[in-house]
Amino acid sequence: MNENRLTILTLTGVMCGVIIGVILKNYSNRQWSERDIMYFQFPGEIFLRIINCLVLPLIISSVVSASCYLSKSGSIGLKAFYYYCTTTSLGIILAVTLVQTIKPGEFYVNRNTTVSNHIKKSVTADAFLDLLRNLFTDNLIKASLSQTQITSPLNSTNDENINSWEIHHRDNDGTNVLGIVGFCLVLGIAIGHLEEKGKPLNDFFKSLSDTVMLMMDWVIMIVPAAVLFLIPGKILEAENITLMISNLGLYVLVVFAGLFIHSLIVLPLLYFICTRKSPYSLLLKTGPAIITALGTSSSTATVPMTIKCLNRIGVNPKVSQFIAPIGATINMDGIALYETIGALFIIQQRGLDFSLMQIISIAITCTVSCIGAAGLPSGGYVMLIVVLESIGIPAEDIDTNIPDNKTPAAK
Questions:
Q1: pLDDT tens, 59-87?
Q2: Distance from first CA to last CA of the chain, Å, rounded?
Q3: Average pLDDT score over residue span 105-111
Q4: Neighbours of 88 (CB within 10 A)
Q5: What is the pLDDT of residue 55?
Q6: In terms of pLDDT, which residue wins out, 323 or 399?
Q7: Max CA pair span of the chain
Q8: What is the pLDDT of residue 404?
Q9: Which of 61, 207, 232, 288 is most exposed, with the fewest beta carbons within 10 Å of its own?
Q10: Residue 123: is its pLDDT beyond 70?
Q11: Taking residues 396-407, what's their average pLDDT?
């Protein structure tokens, strides 16, 4: 009990948060305005701001200090790359299989809608190019504040060939973690190659990593209190959960089924094949990270807790401090699965007939677009809009069956 007290307290905070949210929403005569909800969530908001403030120094110091040793053990980087590609591919295959088997969109087909008047704002290649632009950033300070995305001209029309448009770039708010991680990897490998000459710089980043981790340990202690305010706030934001479930119940079930199958069957099976050890005992030991992710809805905010759990179960800190930040940046299995199911759901809802190759193309676009996406609440919603725009489907379709167009809150 003493060893797992933070896990127990966090889980208790999540359960109490759900109960408080349901009571306040369904059994309170008060009309909760946006300002009321903002006041209620304020303690949780402060927690997320502190975590997000510390995440960037943690990622930079951890990746640089850990990658200093990659020149001596380069297989770690290759194994991580193979693992990330494998798990993301399995998640996409699972998503396509579930949607094409269950076909949730056909239960809500709207035969009267067309896409002929909508402007296709990008092509699939744009997602790949944006990925490389963000990976090879031209300004580290700018990368800390925004991500680059190609966009169409404001006066574009359907009569024009998209390839003849003047190319515009837009900087979206959100840290370009992918570009920062890429730079830190190269910097760390370069320091490692310097050997004795690079040791003072290596010691600096190692000391900085240990210092930020200590600060993170202090902040993590308030996770149970933070989720107690964050979760009720999200429940209060949802306009009408019952109506949302009735309108999108099958879609929600397919998404949850995909997430549960991938996290509780596919990934544990992959772990068992590679190690011949029980994966579920490992899941129990990483409980604090899982519960923190559930309570904060942010993979980025969960990085320090993930590193702490991995170190506690005996993983070499040089490995955990390298794998966890990069995994939280590029191994977005959940967002990739959610985006793929969401895009195919809307295609089915519109009654459109897409070939297998087109579906595969959409799945690849979803995968690429989610790499380096901001690990923040509703981050997948933003990337889904990008994917829909690239195949010529209006982003407004995301709001079609959600009461009062409150999709991010309802989701």
A1: 888 888 888 876 665 677 788 888 888 88
A2: 34
A3: 66
A4: 22
A5: 79
A6: 323
A7: 70
A8: 39
A9: 207
A10: no
A11: 45
Which amino acid type is present at position 311? N
Q: Could you identify the residue written with the tokens 């590609």? A: 85
